[in-house]
Amino acid sequence: MKRETWDMAVVTGVGLVLSTTLVSATADGLTKHLTGSFAPPQLYFFCGLVVAGMSVLMNRVTPSLGPTGRLATRFGRMLALRTALVLISVVSYYHAFANLPLAEVFVFIGMMPLLAAILSRPVLGEPVAPAAWAALSTGAFGILFLFPQGLAGIGWGHLMAASGVMSGTLSLVLMRRMTKLEPNTLAQVFWPHAAMVMVMGLALPFVWQPMSVSDVGLVAAYACAVFLARWLMVPALQRLKAHVAMMLMNLQFVWMVVIGRVAFGEVPEVGTLIGAGCIIGAGCFLVLEQARLKGELPVRRAVPPPHATPAE
Questions:
Q1: Taking the domains of the chain in order of start, what are their residue ranges?
Q2: Residue 163's CB: how many other CB atoms inside 10 A?
Q3: CB within 8 A of 123, min separation 6: which ones?
Q4: Helix residue ranges per DSSP H, 153-241
Q5: d(CA 51, CA 187)
Q6: Measuring CA to CA, which residue among 235, 171, 182, 178 is closest to residue 10?
Q7: 3-state class (DSSP) for residue 102
Q8: In the chain, what is the straight-line distance between the N-terminal and C-terminal CA atoms, in Å?
């Protein structure tokens, strides 16, 4: 019975992560669209305002998600570090999406589960199987396909994508560490975005651009997508290890290619597809290895033959 409960939790975690991929890809597409019109402080000020407000509202109407009426946490220092990492990550991704095709940014995002595996032991105390290091090497090799000209091919967008991935990965790993002991899941959504409102609000007067009704609607849609993606990841990381959850997010590549093609007319280059293939393959191997050793994903239970008799 205990094993069945664990399997059900993992299946739920997988479903939450896969739902997050579609929501996250939608948010990324909206980010790319809005980068041509608004500076980061304006976009993220209103995003933080909406997400923080939705967190407060959800906290009041769904007391099972945390102490009703408050968004307290027992891990103030860790949450402050997570908040700083979230701010670095969102600004980095803003510049990455402004300078690179969606599918190319994904090749960096696809490295997140591999980086999470590296961080699992020092931050979470969760060991990584020796065979997983082969997957890490393959994923790193996939990044090289983006730069056929070597170091000369590295631009501002690539540096920002790398910054976003590193800060975002560490933030999610810290989220998993907190979810093991923190019952108030919405606190992890509220405080980073409340800080975003304060920080971006300081710069807002210097970059303000008038917004039409359609612009306000797009920013609101973006903020709702961000809230849903961040909120879904908290319970997902309660059920799955960080690098396993982020590997499953590689499905986001499919959504990003579709959105990039339909909305922006982007066609991925061959190098991008090969690099993504290397990273996705490495991630799949990583999950299969973890499933074999630890049973982190649902397993097929052996069914005894119908006429089996007990051994004497």
A1: 2-64+75-294
A2: 18
A3: 170, 173, 174, 177
A4: 156-179, 187-207, 213-239
A5: 12
A6: 235
A7: helix
A8: 27
Q: Are 182 and 75 in contact (CB under 8 A)?
A: yes
Q: Which amino acid is at 6?
A: W
DSSP 8-state class, residue 301: P
| Sequence letter at residue 30 | L
State pLDDT tens for residues 204-249: 998 888 888 888 888 888 888 888 887 777 777 677 766 667 666 7
Please state the length of the chain. Answer: 312
Using a 10 angstrom Cβ sphere, with 0-12 exposed, 13-18 middle and 19 or more buried, the burial of residue 182 is buried
**Model's pTM, two decimal places?**
0.68
Distance set, CA 104 to CA 57, 237, 250, 268 (Å): 36, 26, 13, 7
Report the alpha-carbon distance of residue 192 to residue 197 in Å, rounded.
9
Burial class (CB in 10 A: 0-12, 13-18, 19+), 131: middle
Amino acid at 233: M
How far lies 192's CA from each of 49, 55, 125, in Å? 11, 11, 25
